Amino acid sequence: MKLVATVLVGILIAIAIQNEGIIRALAELAAFIVVVFTVRKHRKHRRHNEMVKIEPEEIG
Question: What global pTM score does this model have?
Fold first, then answer.
């Protein structure tokens, strides 16, 4: 998934560099949205993994 997001952002940046006007603005917006969703998904996944690793203490 990270590879797909990275490739997509690269393509969108290439489009933004080569074009002007509304096409450039839309490509930049789409790249930003992909990055935001990727970061949110990574944080959510990391938080879930940290919660799973917590084990209850043994009562002595």
Answer: 0.62
Computed over its alpha carbons, how large is the radius of gyration of the chain?
A: 19
Q: By the 8 A CB rule, do 38 and 24 touch?
A: no
One digit per residue, the tens of pLDDT, for the chain of length 60 reads 788 888 988 998 898 889 899 988 999 999 999 999 989 988 887 776 666 565 666 665
Q: Residue with structure tokens 């990391």?
A: 46
